[in-house]
Design a protein that fits this description.
Distance between the termini: 17 Å
Radius of gyration: 20 Å
Helix content: under 10%
Largest sheet: 4 strands, antiparallel
Number of strands: 23
Shape: globular
Oligomer: single chain
Strand order of the largest sheet: 4-5-6-7
Structural class: mainly beta
Length: about 300
């Protein structure tokens, strides 16, 4: 199965393995009163489902492609064993989680029990990130991250015997590290400027983040030590935009884009941070390691 999200029209479309359309879902609120652009859709493979965020409606959808999926009850039910209420087919049906505000983007915890996402920035500067329990179908925590966290580029790793997540920030020059049991802030790590992309790998103790949203520090990549939660090095392309780190499958090399007309794809040694290869390119931007994505590497959002 493949699912595609649309801004216009307000739909998500399900395709089979031959990319033939199977079903079109109107991105419509549960009460039918409003429709929405679709801001994100991800395959939650361990759950055998797609999870969909709606940009204009405070709902998170889960659409299961498991033919044995449990029936869906949109309303309150006193006893599921008695099959009270009017169930819908769980296979390819829409299981809704109603939220207080929409999610623009999100990523999953390593066990896929939680979706961690961010809403639009609040006018008062209060945190907009939220943790959604996909099994309980409700928000369980607010992430203590101000500004504009780019959770769609977040990573997770073990620190001090606990699993933590780290997210760049589109508004502020910092990386926020959050404990994934208590959902409390562990540390804010200052960076030269607001960043968009963050990456790491299981085989390296380091995480790399750009500052491409900054007019003065867009030429700098900051390397953080996951053990100490402190910056340990920088690499720069003076006066240019250096962004979007991605790791090779074995984690030995980190690749970055010099995002300019006379740009390049730069390969760094992930242990020494030294440049080992430069491939001239025109305006290179995104690089995505398919193996790291489909194996759900902790060093990349998924």
């Amino acid at each position: 199965w493949v699912m595609a999200a649309n801004y216009l029209p307000h739909t998500v479309v399900l395709f089979d393995a031959d990319l033939q359309p199977v079903r079109t879902y109107a991105a419509r609120s549960q009460d039918g009163g409003s429709t929405s652009r679709v801001s994100a859709v991800y395959d939650a493979t361990p759950r055998h489902s797609f999870v969909v965020a709606l940009k204009d409606i405070p709902e998170l959808w889960e659409i299961s492609y498991d033919r044995k999926a449990a029936p869906i009850y949109d309303g309150l039910v006193h006893d599921y064993r008695m099959k009270e209420g009017l169930p819908k087919d769980g296979f390819l049906g829409v299981r809704r989680t109603v939220l207080d505000e929409p999610l623009d983007d999100f990523f999953f915890s390593q066990d896929y029990a939680y979706a961690l996402g961010a809403a639009r920035p609040h006018a008062d500067g209060s945190p907009s990130g939220q943790v959604v329990n996909l099994d309980a179908r409700r928000k369980i925590a607010t992430l203590p991250i101000a500004g504009m966290p780019h959770l769609g580029s977040g990573i997770t790793f073990d620190h001090g015997g606990r699993r933590v997540m780290a997210s760049p920030n589109l508004k502020d020059g910092r990386i926020s590290v959050i404990d994934m049991q208590s959902w409390q802030l562990v540390k804010d790590i200052d960076t030269p400027g607001p960043g968009f992309f963050m990456r790491s790998h299981e085989t390296t103790p380091y995480a790399w983040v750009d500052s491409m949203m900054s007019p003065t520090a867009k030429d700098t990549l900051t390397i953080l030590d996951k053990r100490t939660l402190a910056p340990v090095a920088q690499v720069r392309e003076p006066g240019k935009t250096l962004a979007h780190i991605e790791f090779t499958q074995d984690g030995r090399y980190a690749l970055a884009s010099v995002w300019e007309a006379d740009g390049a794809l730069v390969v760094y040694d992930a242990a020494t941070f030294k440049e080992v290869k430069r491939l001239p390119m025109k305006k290179p931007v995104g690089k995505y390691n398919v193996f790291n994505k489909i194996t759900r590497s902790e060093g990349t959002a998924h």
